[in-house]
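Table S2 (text version). Query chain:
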Amino acid sequence: MKAISSDHHVYEFKPKMAPAMTVEAPETVVFETLDAMGGQVQTEEDKLFDLDFAKINPATGPILIKGAQPGDTLVVQVQGIELPEQGAIVTGKDMGVLGKEIESYATKILPIENGHVCFDDLKLPVSPMIGVIGVAPEKESHPTGTAHRHGGNMDTKEIKEGSIVYLPIYQQGAMLAMGDVHAVMGDGEVCVSACEVPSLITVEIDVIKGQQKKWPMVENDEGFYILVSLPSIEEALLEATREAVAFLSDVLELSFEEAYMLASLVVDIRISQLVDPNKTAKVFIPKEHVGDGVF
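Corresponding structure-token output:
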């Protein structure tokens, strides 16, 4: 097992990235991550307009995986996500889905006690998840706050302990980085943040040689999620639906028309987040219909 400190972090996924660590797959790695605000929010007096936005969304890494090549797939199995004793949520003018309807800025410190996030008298069961996880992209650079085919800020709550994340590899060594852990988040992340926390993330990293999907995928005990991030949610939903139909057609050897009809019966179209520069849609395909084999 290896560990990488949060001192090694990036704010951009670029085609050319200098590795902070090199591993040979399969390898278990513990990522120490900062919260999405870069540790700048410690009290309710710390507001969004006071923050240094150059320090937002740090992603620990990147890690070079020996032998990982373009056309391969990176496999990241999430084994554990440790939480601190408190998190924070922020919002403000022009932030999130309803940002144009508010004039003020607000910060709330959220204690984490006995497996719950405390929002005043409400006790919300923790459900730790990884907001940012990605690799070096093929051509264009992307800030860590943006998601696309390389992964990035997908803010998908299914990326949690017990899940497997599949990322297409575009560059030698893949260059894996991650951060932006949330103790709990609702689909959409509508106010622009969730319960933001620093964390220790334990993952097992491996590589599937010579096979690759167009978009990141997540696997859990129930099924597969295809994650599509594009400038509008309408574009993302359309592409995600197209990919789900193609998945069914390929795995079950169906015609496009048959797969399209089956998708209308068994595929669930959902939204991960609505607040980042690219919006993220997810389609869920149950294992009971397609089995365990994604590659």
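Notes on Table S2: The first helix runs from residue 233 to 252. The radius of gyration is 19 Å.
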